[in-house]
Design brief:
The structure holds two protein chains of two kinds. Helices cover 23% and strands 24% of the residues of chain A. By secondary structure, chain A is an alpha+beta fold. Among the domains of chain A are: 174 residues, 2-Layer Sandwich (Aldehyde Oxidoreductase, domain 4), CATH 3.30.365.10; 217 residues, Aldehyde oxidase/xanthine dehydrogenase, molybdopterin binding domain (Aldehyde Oxidoreductase, domain 4). In chain A, strands 3-5-1-15-12-13-14 form a seven-stranded mixed sheet, with helices on both faces. In chain A, strands 7, 10, 11, 16, 17 and 18 form a six-stranded mixed sheet that branches. The longest helix of chain A is centred in the C-terminal third of the chain and has 25 residues. The N and C termini of chain A lie far apart (62 Å). Chain B is 32% helix and 22% strand. Chain B is built from 19 helices and 21 strands. Chain B is globular, with a radius of gyration of 23 Å. The termini of chain B are far apart. Classes of the chains: A alpha+beta, B alpha+beta. At the A-B interface, helix 1, helix 3, helix 14 and strand 30 of A face helix 2, helix 3, helix 5 and helix 19 of B. Chain A: This is Xanthine dehydrogenase family protein molybdopterin-binding subunit. Chain A: It holds the Pfam family MoCoBD_2.
């Protein structure tokens, strides 16, 4: 029997709780020794290598492939093309809900983006497969590529992101603008960005009859099993995904992609294990990216600097054949009080791979622009940017009026500003220089992120030796889930984390939900917590019903689990160890199970968000336009913190992603060919160590009695929000130049500004 | 007569390896992962950008065993003859414990997703053996070539500072076994030429420089590989056929640095790292510039000679060397000729190098005491970035304050590294004043018509190039304007 057990309340923390402790990560030893096994490190006997041949054009048709030349190459075993690709049981053009995407698996000869798979070569060696793919020498019928925001096809869309409404209106936006003393209005552009997890996407597929084992990095094990099962016409239980380690995901490993499906198909066709690992360049196409956006902000303010209207209109790019539009305008919904808010999106079709969720999808690009617009409005009102945000502080969720389950944003502002030394900042730009003559600027932004909760299941087994095994099919892509989840389980079980063995990262375990949306710790954590509570309850039943136990008859009074013993609540002295209870009961173990989900009533009644404030200092070389972020201070309130060490590193990671969003990351597309010219790590810039300045992340304490029974919110993505705008605003403060496109480039601050023209007319 | 053998011999961790089957373009990373099942080293980019594949390669320099971090993904197996390759699998601490580097990384939370971690560990290992208690600047330098997309750099910095509290370098296995390994490597270097393969799959490791010279005269279109930081990408990124390959990184005759009569002569096989000490001491402005070429692994592999010989318009050493008045010695067989460095660069992709000829050495004059030299590299990212524009200036003033001579050279402004002759002419003989500099700044259009690319626009390049001259002027007046904003600080 599985049970859903409500945790009393976060205030009821047990003595000596391991949760809240800054434990080092459990998987550290395996990682520093090189013994952590990533997907591409698996080499089953008899394995073949698969390499995708990819298109070099963005739009058109493949008219010829020299399959004979490829097949004639020594070692090449098979070449899959649209002509001979075995059938799939599910139409690849038909998306599998809830997070399914259309996949490119050689269903026809159409080319829709550069780096689309156009054939799969399978060979005895990696070298032969690579050479075979090169020998295919594709011929194309080329159509002109639609690249760049101004060249795409616009369309109306009912939904953005994953099923979010594309238009949300609160109040009368026109009336709000009409009532404004001043309206601040501008257009902004954000570029296509690529996840670029350090580990390229890889799979090793092995079939045994109608069962398949997949070694692959995966952020959503149960959903992926169901989707693979659909494609291959087998029960979901016949798909085993092993994903013990992910070399980063950031959203790109939550979604199925064509190359991996083709490799699995090849393994079935050839009845041998097949490995496929994408090259870095091949990751710029079929495995998702953050779509580019064109955004317009109109902020009406009254004489006191209070918003009368907030209009956020986004043109969000997607591919020609599927839809994932950055829900960027929705970043303007939960944050600032305004009698009228309108968030709306249009779609734009380009000849690219389909975008997907990338760390803070929508929130990152929407917040980047909103926070710059807020800065511009503050300046227009002659107000300090922080003062302006406080003047527009939302006490309840704007639009809906719902109370926040908890909101400690004021404390974030105050603590962040204090640590940064914000007071005394001159309002005017170009007023600060350092000892070397560099222009210095300070800027700030507000961080906000929603708190999703995914249904999850877990199992907790108390063993005769007094230790426990806890299990859930979660994913640790670097955030430290293995550690934090074990801490949560240990707390529920009244054990030290060292006594708790966590099994995770394999789909045969109870469904751990999705490692995404910053919701994994809360989702899988609550399931583990509940399973632990269930196991303890079963153990307590054994003890309290046993006349030989010192706990006999304590049923109504209750017992408490602590340090591997059950104690009578009313009599500390009466206790018994788990081992003793199990031994006398003649049981090797007691198993607790649980399912956990959010109470829909709680979600309906509250607005659920993490909050934060980010303060940035930049220095700009006035002669060369080089920008360096020199200080970043973030203060974040995200409910209860399970492991401050891990959480701090998540905040840092998000903030550093904010640096690269503001100053570095951009896939540059050749307008003529649609090719990405920097599809590598040399010229697609991600931050190096030296780009990372003095960082400070302040953990603002916050008790949230509603968000979930653990009181845990998410921390993985919020750091990027707020930071991008803070940096852009600091650049303005340093230079007086307002750059309205990201990333801010060298020439923007030296030569002249590339004006962003309006996407929407005026 | 040169002895010839048909196998590459090296040490891999604790094992002697002799390979008679080696493709000329086989990378060390493929060898480790595919042939040896040593999969702790990861492939993140296959072009030397991310450092996830970092291993140490030990080799004898003047009889001394030196271990350096390298990118296994662009290092060819054929270049390893006589070397000791050390991978993450070889690390061990005392009495079965973790190695100090590893324990520090665990304790300071230095790994997140972990994919980059083996590379970071190896880079830190290489540093720790050289500098057990490094300053932050040294740590930063050692980590320039390692990317972490989880961006856990701060924790890694903390770990790096703490390593020596976990153990002593003297007890490290590589230190303990140093004498034995040195002896083994000495034996492996038997003075033979190595030749492996036939037809389109040939590699040659010359016995010495004379042997190299004779090989070049007899081979049709060989690919000369010194550090492979460029040619490695021809293979991994562009799948180019590079056979026959002649590896020269090991040739002692090309690895010499000498100083004579104010001239620093650098053999074509000298790496950036090896050249750093002499160049940064004799010409201090070159130190910070060399520090920002690639990452540590690339500097440990890449050679000054290769940076010149490949003729790239954005190579970082030609502009300062041209400004300094460097000359280049080319050799064909036994014949040598020496030309001004700028004359070597004829056009994009075209250099003054005849078939059978090779770059033997570059000779860099040390600026006179009364002259002023500076070089500036402009990049968007702080480290590990390809140059948008690079300017180098050498000024000598006459007693009356006029410009006796000025040499100005840029990279990233033309199809080759190029001198700003019109600007030089406008300044020469004039008073070294702001007004004169401003007047000369109008001459840039005569010298350069830069391109727009994703690193910078033409307009930016032109303006930044001019501004560099003004900055150089300001600095020559005692103005303080370093190009780099202050670096990493930890709260």
């Amino acid at each position: 029997m599985s049970s859903e057990i409500a945790f009393p309340s976060p205030q009821h923390r047990r003595h000596g709780s391991s949760a809240g402790q800054p434990l080092t990560r459990r998987d550290g030893v395996l990682k520093v020794t090189g013994r952590a096994t990533y997907a591409a490190d698996n080499h089953p006997e008899g394995m073949l290598y698969a390499v995708t041949a990819v298109s070099s054009i963005a739009r058109g048709r493949v008219t010829a492939l020299d399959v004979e030349a490829a097949k004639a190459h020594p070692g090449v075993v098979e070449v899959l093309t649209p002509a001979n690709r075995p059938p799939l049981s599910h139409d690849p053009d038909d998306k599998i809900p809830p997070f399914g995407f259309r996949v490119e698996v050689l269903q026809d000869d159409t080319v829709r983006y550069v780096n689309q798979p156009i054939a799969l070569v399978i060979a005895e060696t990696l070298e032969a497969a690579t050479e075979g793919a090169a020998l295919l020498n594709p011929q194309y019928e080329v159509e002109s590529a639609r690249t760049g925001l101004e060249n795409g096809e616009r369309f109306d869309t009912p939904a953005v992101g994953v099923g979010a409404p594309s238009r949300t209106a609160y109040g009368d936006i026109d009336a709000g603008l009409a009532a404004a003393v001043r309206v601040t209005e501008a257009d902004y552009v954000t570029p296509p960005q690529y996840h670029n997890a350090m580990e390229p996407h890889a799979v090793v597929a092995q079939w045994d009859g109608d069962r398949v084992t997949l070694d692959m990095p995966n952020q959503a094990l149960a959903l992926s099993c169901a989707a693979y099962a659909a494609y291959f016409g087998i029960p979901a239980g016949n798909v085993l995904i092993r994903s013990p380690f992910l070399g980063g995901g950031f959203g790109s490993k939550a979604i199925l992609n064509g190359p991996q499906i083709l490799a699995i198909l090849a393994a079935r066709m050839l009845d041998r294990p097949v490995k496929l690992a994408l090259t870095r360049a091949q990751m710029y196409g079929p495995v998702g990216h953050r779509g580019q956006t064109w955004q317009k902000l109109r902020l009406g303010t009254d004489g006191e600097g209070r918003l009368t209207a907030l209009h956020h209109h986004v043109l969000a790019a997607t591919s020609s054949f599927d839809e994932f539009m950055e829900p960027a305008a929705n970043a303007s919904l939960p944050l600032y009080a305004s009698p009228a808010i309108l968030a709306e999106h249009d779609g734009l079709r380009l000849d690219t791979g389909t975008p997907g969720p990338m760390r803070a999808p929508g929130e990152a690009s929407g917040s980047a622009v909103l926070e710059v617009a807020m800065d511009e409005a503050a300046i227009a009102c002659g107000m300090d940017p922080l003062e302006f945000r406080l003047a527009n502080y939302a006490e309840t969720e704007p639009g809906t009026g719902k109370p926040f389950s908890s909101k400690s944003l004021r404390e974030c502002y105050a603590e962040g500003a204090k640590r940064f030394g914000w007071s005394g900042r001159p309002l005017e730009p170009r007023r600060m220089r350092d000892e070397n003559g560099f222009l210095v600027g300070w800027g700030m932004g507000t961080a906000v992120f929603h708190c999703p909760h995914f249904p999850a299941e877990a199992r907790a087994t108390l063993r005769a030796d007094g230790t426990a095994l806890v299990e859930t099919a979660g994913a640790d892509m670097g955030q430290g889930a293995w550690t934090a989840l074990a801490q949560i389980a240990a707390e529920a079980l009244g054990l030290d984390p060292d006594q708790v063995e966590l099994h995770s990262g394999i789909s045969s375990l109870p469904d751990g939900g999705i490692a995404g949306g910053s919701g994994h710790t809360a989702s899988a954590g609550l399931a583990l917590h509940n399973a632990g509570v269930d196991a303890i309850a079963r153990l307590a039943e054994l003890a309290t019903a046993d006349p030989a136990s010192p706990l006999f008859g304590a049923g109504n009074i209750g017992v408490e689990a602590r340090s591997g013993r059950l104690h009578r609540r009313d009599d500390e002295g009466r206790s018994e160890s788990y081992s003793e209870i199990l031994a006398r009961a003649g049981q090797a173990e007691v198993v607790g199970t649980a399912k956990a989900a959010r109470d829909p009533a709680v979600a309906e009644a509250h607005a659920l968000f993490s909050h934060g404030a980010v303060f940035a200092e930049v220095k700009v070389d006035p002669d060369l336009g080089q920008v360096r972020v020199t200080r970043l201070v973030g203060a974040f309130a995200a409910g209860r913190i399970i492991n401050p060490r891990l959480v701090r590193s998540q905040y840092f990671g998000g903030m550093i992603w904010g640096i690269s969003f503001a100053l570095q990351e951009e896939a540059v597309t050749d307008r003529r060919t649609g090719r990405i010219m920097n599809a590598d790590l040399a010229e697609y810039h991600v931050p190096v160590n030296a780009d990372v300045p003095s960082l400070d992340a302040i953990l603002i304490p916050e008790d949230d009695p509603y968000v979930n029974p653990l009181g845990v919110k998410g921390v993985g993505e919020i750091g990027i929000t707020g930071t991008v705008g803070a940096i852009a605003n600091a650049v303005w403060h340093a230079t007086g130049v307002r750059v309205r496109h990201f990333p801010i480039r060298l020439e923007d601050l030296l030569v002249n500004q590339r004006d962003v023209t309006s996407a929407f007319g005026n | 007569m040169t002895k010839t053998r048909n196998e590459i011999r090296f040490l891999l961790n604790g094992e002697d390896v002799a390979l008679s089957q080696v493709a000329p373009d086989e990378t060390l990373l493929d060898y480790l992962r595919l042939r040896r099942s040593l999969r702790g080293s990861k492939e993140g980019c296959a072009e030397g950008d991310c450092g996830a594949c970092t291993v140490l390669v030990g080799r004898l320099t003047d009889g001394k065993l030196v271990y350096e971090s390298v990118n296994a993904c662009i290092r060819f197996v054929g270049s390893l003859d006589g070397c000791h390759v050390v991978t993450i699998e070889h690390l061990r601490g005392e009495a079965g414990k973790l190695h100090p580097v590893q324990q520090a990384m665990v304790d300071f939370h230095g790994s997140q997703c972990g994919f980059c971690t083996p590379g970071f560990v190896m880079s830190l290992y290489g540093l720790w053996m050289k500098e057990p208690k490094p300053a932050d600047a040294a740590i930063e330098k050692a980590l320039q070539g390692n990317l972490c997309r989880c961006t856990g750099y701060e924790a890694i910095m903390r770990a790096a500072r703490a390593i020596s509290s976990y153990g002593k370098v003297a007890k490290d296995p590589l230190a303990v076994e140093r004498a034995a390994v040195t002896e083994k490597l000495t034996v492996l270097r038997d003075g033979s030429r190595v030749e492996i393969g036939a037809e389109k799959h040939r590699l040659i490791v010359p016995a010495d420089v004379d042997d190299f010279a004779s090989i070049l005269e007899s081979e049709q279109k060989p690919t000369i590989v010194a550090g492979s930081t460029d040619v490695g990408l021809w293979v991994t990124k562009h799948m180019r056929d590079i056979s026959p390959v002649v590896f020269i990184g090991h040739l002692d005759g090309l690895r010499t640095i000498s100083e004579k009569d104010g001239l620093v002569s650098i053999g074509a096989g000298v790496t950036y790292t090896e050249a750093f000490e002499t160049l940064s001491k004799r010409i201090p402005a070159l130190g910070p510039l060399i520090d920002r070429i690639g990452g540590e692994q690339v500097r440990n592999m890449g050679t000054i000679g290769g940076n010149i010989a490949n003729g790239s318009p954005i190579g970082d050493t030609p502009p300062p060397f041209i400004a300094l008045g460097a000359t280049l010695t080319l050799r064909k067989g036994k014949a040598r000729r020496t030309i001004p460095l700028e004359e070597f660069f004829i056009a994009y992709g075209k250099q003054d190098r005849q078939p059978g000829e090779f770059v033997e050495a570059v000779h860099v004059p040390v600026p006179a005491k009364d002259s002023y030299f500076a070089a500036y590299k402009i990049t968007k990212r702080r480290d590990e970035d390809i140059t948008a524009a690079l300017g180098a200036f050498l000024l000598t003033l006459a007693r009356d304050g006029t410009v006796a001579s000025i040499r100005i050279a840029y990279g990233g402004m033309a199809a080759t590294p190029k001198r700003a002759r019109a600007v030089e002419a406008a300044l020469t003989g004039k008073p070294w004043t702001e007004a004169a500099v401003e007047a000369a700044m109008t001459k840039y259009a005569e010298d350069f018509t830069p391109l727009t690319d994703m690193r910078a626009t033409a307009e930016y390049r032109m303006l930044a190039a001019r501004n560099l001259l003004m900055r150089f002027f300001a600095e020559s007046q005692g103005g303080k304007a370093p190009i780099q904003v202050s670096r990493h600080r930890v709260a």
